[in-house]
Write a structure and sequence with these properties.
Length: 454
């Protein structure tokens, strides 16, 4: 190491030559640009006081190039026990939905041309038809996520007017998505009624004026309030809205189409139930309990959906062809009555504990090495802001290593092929099988064996 750390920096040519053997994924021109950019980053580090040898510089560049050459969004195995894991991409779609999305992405589709007339139209027709069949919604508009759906709905229907919301529902749902801020952005004004823990239908009705664009009910998707509480039912609010001539809007969040109480969970209101109870418009996510691709659904009265669809913001947030194809394929599972067998999120939720126990035993029998491996009971969560506080009994593979820390073992699994994400509890790595699809058990076993015996 010299007194001048900048002398340790290799030239662009030397660094490119050192990286050439692992550069099969990039062209010579790209490799040169990569070397230039990496050396620029190193120079900034040296200016801040870092001391790096030539070998360390090349090693860092090698690791960075390998990381760049490996797709970040490659499939992974989710063994965290969180079924709808936002950081891992929320709901995986069914095989049929994935095929439909791939086919739509790789070719032309009749997105806005009607095959029989060769005229423009029909972008939402398939989704609206399926949603009407499954939920009773007269019409449906699909945008890129539920946050966009709420913003678009309020902007199109309530800009320059007021919207009445319970004080207990003026919430922050996640990622800084705050109902008061969204309403401000939409150009509408928030009128809070009731208290944090108790709001009645009469509170909403007393707040309605000529400037009221509607009543908004917000589903508390990621928290619960217990104890001395009261809230107005959809039926009560629907009666108020009919009497006063304003629409009833609801941000339902999770987008459930099945009764979750069937699986021993708290009942999550479904889109169909809310529409039948009198809600004029429902907004919901496509990639939570519905089990489809990322999407925001606005479903309900045809006249309101039509009005929203004509707002300029609708084009800015509309869903693309791959989303619509995947969502339609997902809804067809519900129409066919095979959603529990085909949609991964519902497969995970509905899997019997006996099946998980059998799979854990089979997996354990294939593993040998320096790690301590046990089969343990676990608790899975729904995640994605759905059914907060609710858990499902599960079965996990529990590991600890005699050769290294559990953090290093977990990291090696995360960096493996395929990548495996679990959770650490009481100095043991927990791999919860409820969030691992049975068809991935062989891959999980192989990756575990490699990590344990590395």
């Amino acid at each position: 190491m010299t007194d001048n750390p900048f002398r340790e920096l290799p030239s662009v040519t030397d660094l490119s030559r050192a990286l050439w053997e692992i550069s099969s994924e990039v062209s010579p021109r790209t490799l040169t640009t990569f070397a230039q950019q990496h050396l620029a980053d190193v120079r900034r580090d040296v200016e801040r006081g870092a001391i790096l040898s030539r070998e360390e510089i090349v090693q860092r560049a090698t690791m960075a190039l390998r990381d760049m050459s490996r797709p970040r969004l490659e499939p992974i195995i989710n063994a965290t026990g969180v079924i709808i894991h936002t950081n891992l991409g929320r709901a995986p779609v069914s095989h049929a939905a994935a095929v439909a999305m791939s086919a739509a992405a790789s070719g032309f589709v009749s997105l806005e041309l009607e095959p029989d007339t060769n005229r423009r139209g029909g972008r939402m027709r398939e989704i609206s038809t399926l949603m009407r069949l499954l939920t009773g919604a007269e019409s449906t508009l699909v945008v890129n996520n539920n946050a966009a759906a709420v913003l678009l709905m309020l902007t199109a229907l309530a800009s320059g007017k007021s919207v009445v919301v319970s004080r207990g529902e003026a919430v922050e749902i996640g990622g800084g998505f705050r109902i008061p801020d969204v309403m401000t952005q939409s150009g509408s004004s928030l009128v809070e009624v009731g208290t944090t823990n108790r709001t009645y239908a009469r509170d909403y009705e007393a707040a309605i004026t000529e400037e009221t664009a509607g009543l908004l009910k917000v589903h508390a998707s990621n928290f619960t309030i217990e104890g001395f509480t009261a809230s107005a039912s959809i039926e009560e609010l629907a009666e108020v809205c009919r009497r006063r001539g304003v629409p009833l809007l609801e941000d339902l969040g999770s987008g459930a189409l099945v009764d979750t109480s069937r699986f021993g969970l708290m009942k999550e209101p479904t889109i169909g139930e809310r529409i039948a109870s009198g809600a004029d418009l429902i907004t919901a996510s496509g990639d939570k309990l519905l089990g489809g691709p990322q999407a925001g659904l606005i479903a309900g009265r045809a006249d309101l959906v039509e009005r929203i669809s004509k707002h300029p913001l609708a084009r800015a947030v509309r869903a693309d062809k791959t989303c619509l194809a995947g969502l339609a394929a997902t809804l067809r599972h519900y129409a066919a009555g095979n959603e529990l067998e085909q949609i991964p999120v519902l497969r995970m939720i509905s899997t019997p504990i006996s099946d998980l126990t059998d799979r854990a035993g089979n997996l354990r029998s294939t593993l040998h090495g320096s790690s301590d491996i046990e089969i343990t009971p676990a608790q899975s969560t729904i995640g994605g802001g759905s059914l907060p506080g609710q858990t499902l009994a599960s079965v996990a593979i529990s590991l600890s290593s005699t050769a290294e820390s559990v953090d290093m073992l977990a990291r090696r699994l995360r960096m493996g092929n395929p990548r495996i994400f679990g959770r650490i509890e009481h100095e043991r790595l927990i791999l919860d099988l409820r969030t691992v699809l049975p068809e991935d058990d062989v891959l999980l076993a192989q990756a575990l064996s490699e990590a344990i015996n590395a």
